[in-house]
Amino acid sequence: MPVVHEFVSLLHHPNAVSIHVCPVCSAYRKKGQWIYSKNQTVSVNDIVLAVAKENIKLESFAENSSIELEVEHYGHSIYPVHIHAEAIVSGKPVVYDGLLQVQIHFETCGVCNRIAGGYYEAIIQLRGDSRIPTETEVRECSKTIQKLLERINRQGDRLALITRTEKLKEGTNFYIASNKAAKNACRKLVIVYAATLTESNKLVGRKDGRDVYRMTYALRLPRFKEGDIIKCNGSYLNVTRIGKNITAVDLLSDISVTLHKEQMKQAKKIAGADDAKTAILISSDKTSVQIMDPDTYKTITMRKPAFISDDRREVKIIKINDEILIVK
Ligand SMILES: [Zn+2]
Q1: 240 and 215 share a domain?
Q2: Strand order in the sheet with 235-242
Q3: What are 252's strand-pairing partners?
Q4: Are residues 140 and 123 part of one domain?
Q5: How far is ligand 1, taken at its centre, from the CA of residue 140, in Å?
Q6: Which of 211, 29, 193 is CA-nearest to residue 105?
Q7: What one GO molecular function would you report for this record (predicted)?
Q8: Same domain, 122 and 95
Q9: Percent over 90 (pLDDT), the chain
């Protein structure tokens, strides 16, 4: 007598399963826990398939099994999943066809709820050292923060984002949903912009028996920018690099100088890189250059700075009172 394989059930599954899906980010809830997909473009169909797979238990005696699932969609939230399975049991082929109904309840997840509510754990305050950050600096910094947070977000911290930006007279505040991400981003910003960072915290309440703090990261952009012309102890300096210290070229002697923060206290900005004008370089020899004053069209002979190469056709100049300085 052959074994009646038709009556062997290859697999077990409930007839219906109901799940909660976040309509904003497509996370789904499993045993009270929200499951977030790393893939941000996951579809409801994908979730239904994943849930169906989790609920189908294949018998251990089935060999060489294959399971095919096909999702249908009725109305708003009913997703019947057709199951077709084939396997070998005791050397005979066995087929299974069944239906698993997945019902979806749409519910905004905890993370999306917090984001929508403007939740934040930290504020990054973008400021300048004795100055206000320029529009361009704010734009650039904001882009850098976004990029850094996006990277952290992709690594799994879903609160790594700006929930609010606030423009103030003295600078811009970025409200960040994740403190860990804000801290991480600030460490990088300090390096990128040669900025200084001060951290402070404020007790905002208690959660699960622990104190909850809100962090503030004050990020101060350096007082001077690369390209600035500054006056320091009677010398005119062209700032070439900003890091822990400032490197500059003395425009009257060509000597490269390094200044510590303390020495910068008396320094004053004379002009920015954008204030420099272009002047035609008429001729040059080893020690001098003839340039045409762009305002008066007069030819002026000047000492040739070491940073001006022989093949130059024009130079950048800055006028301070009656004095003309060639800048780098
Ligand atoms: Zn969500």
Answers
A1: no
A2: 256-259, 246-250, 235-242, 229-232, 268-271
A3: none
A4: yes
A5: 29
A6: 29
A7: ribosomal large subunit binding
A8: no
A9: 48
Model confidence pLDDT, tens digit, residues 90-126? 888 889 999 999 999 999 998 899 899 999 999 999 9
CB 52 within 8 A of CB 85: no
CA distance 190 to 126: 11
Do 129 and 48 fall within a single domain?
no
Mark which of 109, 140, 158 sits at the end of a domain.
Answer: 109
Q: Quote the ligand 1 centre to 158 CA distance (angstroms).
A: 9
Element spanning 47, H or E: helix 44-55
Using the mean position of ligand 1's atoms as its centre, give its distance from the Cα of residue 90 in Å: 47
Estimate the crossing angle of helix 135-154 against helix 179-193, to 10 degrees.
130
* 22 Cα–ligand 1 center, Å: 5
Q: Whole domain around residue 261: which residue ranges?
A: 229-327
CA of 28 to the centre of ligand 1 (A): 8
- Kindly report the backbone phi and psi dihedral angles of residue 172, in degrees, each rounded to the nearest multiple of 5, phi listed first: -130, 140
**How far does the centroid of ligand 1 lie from the alpha carbon of residue 107, in Å?**
8
Distance CA 137, CA 274 (A): 14
- For ligand 1, the distance from its centroid to the CA atom of residue 77, given in whole angstroms, is 17
The verdict on 55 and 33 lying in the same domain is yes
Task: Compute the distance from residue 214 Cα to the ligand 1 centre, in Å.
Answer: 23
Q: What is the 208 CA–ligand 1 centroid distance (Å)?
A: 23
Q: 162 and 237, same structural domain?
A: no
165-188, pLDDT tens digit by residue?
999 999 999 999 999 999 999 999
- Determine the distance from the C-alpha atom of residue 19 to the mean position of all C-alpha atoms in its chain, rounded to a whole number: 33
Q: How many structural domains comprise the chain?
A: 3
Q: Which residues of the chain fall short of a pLDDT of 50?
A: 1-5
Say yes or no: 36 and 80 in one domain: yes
- Residue 145 CA to ligand 1 centre (angstroms): 22
* Residue 204 alpha carbon to ligand 1 centre in Å: 25
**Domain end among 221, 244, 269:** 221
* Co-location of 307 and 287 in the same domain: yes
